[in-house]
Input
Amino acid sequence: MQHSVDETTRSKRQEFYDRLKPHDLAPLWEVMKGMLPPEPSSKALPHRWRYQDIRPLVIESGSLLTAEEAERRVLVLENPAFPGQSRATSTLYAGIQVIMPGETAPAHRHTPSALRFMLEGEGAYTAVGGERTKMSFGDFVITPAWAYHDHGNEGSDPAVWLDGLDVPMIAFFEAVFREDYNDDRQEIMRPEGDSLARFGSGLLPLSGGSRYGLTTPIFNYPYERTREALYKASRGEAVDPHLGTTLRYANPMDGGWTMPTMSAWVTLIPRDMETARIRSTDGIIMCIAEGSGTITVGDKVLDFSPRDVIAVPGWKWRSFKASEDCVVFCFSDRVAQEKLGYFCEDRARP
Ligand code: 1HN
Output
């Protein structure tokens, strides 16, 4: 309801507000509407980073300093709405990391969780929980909160991947801690593939939970399996008009999302499909694994090619137009919103 007030009333109220200030008090009624908008309006902007632009620069950074020196040699994907804040969306960090042949990135751990989506190069590995995993194109790799991790590249080409972290979210809670390991590389205690065999074969150990608390014990979801599952699933059922064929990465311990703060999934949109508009409260970062086309986010139309990264702010309508079969890796803060009890999505009539 609109109330109009005369000048005398206004100045009387202002005088009262001024007397509140020294007591560190403020009137809610002056700010309440701004605090509770009728619907979310993300401050983040829809944005696309072209891999074609990033690649030469991230490779060039490889000649400026070593991975060791940098600790992590990464070009941060800054949402243009948040310069200098290391945020790709309001709650998530993203960056493109490069490890040159023979280099290592030293072991450390932190309270933020991390995920990787592998973009190029063979022969790079990451180690988590005393186990190494080789990272190949399209692999979805997880670093649980507070788990030591180090990376290396034993191949002959630069290894490049997309990093996603929940740093802005953990920083909002003012709970970011970090610690270095007492050596550059962590001790390897398990053979490669142990986690995937033990937890990712449709089998589970008879007793015990995840090795990483709320995070999935599988720390590499290989692209080969993901891609095959997507294509097979796309033939078995009608394609969803809003989502194409979408499968989410699951924690085998409980069937839930793979991490407690970041949801991850993959979408296959067949050639020539135009998806119906959908919007959801999570802010999403997408990385094109295969294919090209356009995505409309709010009133922005962004064309994309393989390895491009796209930021989709919360509650903006989005839809795809695929010129070829497109495989899109996505991650968002959805799981955190679900746990807080308010996540929602809205589908426009196809
Ligand atoms: C981090 O630990 C990695 O381990 C990458 O590869 C990017 C960005 C912010 C904070 C920690 C990594 C990061 C990061």
Q: What stands out?
A: The chain is about 20% helix and 30% strand.
